[in-house]
Amino acid sequence: MSVSGFKRIALLAPLVAVMALSGVRVFTQEDVQPVNDGPNPYRPIRNWGILPEGRQWGPVSGIDIDRDGKSVWVFDRCGNSCAGSNLDPVLKFDESGKLLKSFGAGMFAWPHSVHVDRDGNVWVVDARLTTPAELKKFPGETVKGNTVVKFSPEGKVLMTLGKSGVSGDPPAAFTDPNDVVTAPNGDIYVSESHTNLESTPNAVARISIFDKNGKFIRSFGKLGSGPGEFRTPHAMVFDSRGRLIVADRANHRIQIVDKNDGKFLGEFRDFSRVSGLVIDKDDTIFAIDSESDAKRHPGWRKGIRIGSLRDGKVKFFIPGHQTDSPDGAAGEGVARDAAGNLYTAETTVRGVTKYVKN
């Protein structure tokens, strides 16, 4: 039996037509057996990337590849957060791990994701506000966060979406944004929110679209587990057909929606509780699960699941890191360079891991 060769049972009535049109099967969570094994064609290189002397990695969740196909951009949390820090959180490394440039000191509260657009500009997401505890710990610090910032490759601020230090609704503000991605036509997509759903039952869960100049177009999505609903839309990418692929993390699925209005097109559940995504030109999907454990997703292991977006089947599995915790650890962000190497942004073991094909 293949790693995805388990019995599947489709959802009933209203989704059948959608499934037929999209060519994507839809399943309930209970129908899917854990996919925890498979060939692993990669070997890990831990602690990749050389920081200046005296600086240590913080938790990292944002990582992407430069337009050159080999340099790596990382969005580091300056320790545990960037409150009170004078460190640059936006870092660029060459393919050997040498630090080429850095910028962004004093601008962010809690760095979360980074996206490099087709012109080489660097977009970053500051995912929450500075906390009262951080303000108390660092006198003179101000409330920051809840913004999406577009930098030139040299570090010049080109655009800011949302108002730093404010929570709210687009277009004026964001509430705990997760990710940003740009469409082929330059439209900007921002997903919210990263809120703890157990303590915030009425959290927002939406994706907003802005045009290339930052003008608000529309938002779609709401909190829920049905078609077109989200529970922590943690990461987004576009596939070769221009569909928006969403890591609907707390719903334990990858959801496929129309990029214009969020119409549900399909879902896959074999990739587990996905925090980060990358898709290659052949629609091979690399999905990293940083959170599965006995409480949040029983029976599933942390790691990277690799498969086809065309059929939703997992073909390869890279297990998470061994740690003192029985559940181990895996990163939140994942990126793939032109040579096929993978890079993961590590929140638990910190820093960056590079995966090279054997």
Describe the protein:
It is a single chain. With 358 residues, this protein is mainly β. The chain has one domain (14-357): Neuraminidase (6 Propeller). Helices cover 4% and strands 35% of the residues. It has two helices and 24 strands. It has helices at residues 14-22, 132-137, and strands spanning 42-48, 60-65, 72-76, 90-93, 99-103, 111-116, 122-126, 147-151, 157-161, 177-182, 188-192, 206-210, 216-220, 233-238, 244-248, 253-257, 264-268, 276-279, 284-289, 303-308, 314-319, 333-336, 342-345, 352-357. The strands form six sheets. The protein has a four-stranded antiparallel sheet with strand order 1-24-23-22, with no helix packed on it. The chain has a four-stranded antiparallel sheet with strand order 2-3-4-5, with no helix packed on it. It is globular, with a radius of gyration of 19 Å. The two termini are 24 Å apart.
Strand content: 35-45%
Portion of residues within helices: under 10%
Largest sheet: 4 strands, antiparallel
Helix/strand/pairing category:
mainly beta
Distance between the termini: 24 Å
Number of separate structural domains: 1
Spatial arrangement of strands, main beta sheet: 1-24-23-22
Poorly predicted regions: 1-27
